[in-house]
Amino acid sequence: MKTISPPSLADIELDLPLRRVTDDLSAFTDRLSLSAGAEKGYAGFAAEVHPVGEIAERAIGHAVEITRFLALAGTSERAQVAYFFDMLVALLLLNNAAMITVALTPPRLPVDFAARQRVLGDVIAAVGGDTGFAEIARKAFVYGEIGEPAAVETVFHAATVPALDDIRDGRPTVLGLEQGLSLMAFMREQASPAILVERAALQLDDADRFAQAVQEDAELDRERLDRLQRACHGANLLAAADLARACLIDAVTAGDQPLRTRIEALAQRLVEQRLKDIVMFAAAMADRLWELRRMQAETAGRFKPL
Asked: How confident is the model at residue 151 (pLDDT cuts 50, 70, 90)?
């Protein structure tokens, strides 16, 4: 009687050509334009409308592929799992970046609040009994002191992998296990977390300068005052995004403790408590990614490359 083997990672047919991979935090910060000057650029960024629902659906799509990887890993040779492990780390990095972006983006519509609730629910369900992590997540998704608008009946579906012809460079998309080679390349092409941290420091300097201009000039007209306040807010949003992204990238690359200390110090300069909480949320996610990387290193040492 012929034995039918269960599906495993060895059955994945890897696609070519390679696709450019962009995480949602990178796409978030890339929307800044300083062509009209820093003040107008940051102010314009603060007024940007982001597709929160689409970002949430990408987070769901990444989670589906993570679950798929884990299911196949359970029926795969350990050497195969070790060889493909970067795919799992990349999917988790993309998933975490999307979830943080949902928390970071100011909600403007009822559907945006619904997306935040969905992603927060997914985070809490995923961490199980880790009450400390769940509490950090809840704080990161708080927005304002007033109650959220009435819930809207919105169903969020997992985003799917687009066809090659539909891909636009610089735009985040979901990738599946079949795009494993692109995911592996993505892991090797990360931005420098140290540079992201220093960029965040410059953005916070700009925010301080805008705030000081408001305080020192009592005769500002309403238009300039509004622009300076929005510029300060925009600079803080961008700094929080860069600090959060630096946490994630540092965890899957160097794991530099002095850099984490620098991130934590800069986060204290953020003007909104919710932004500080989001960076703390990113740091908690980064700790899990670092632990996964440590396990990967231990596992990889036992096997030679396939």
From this structure: low
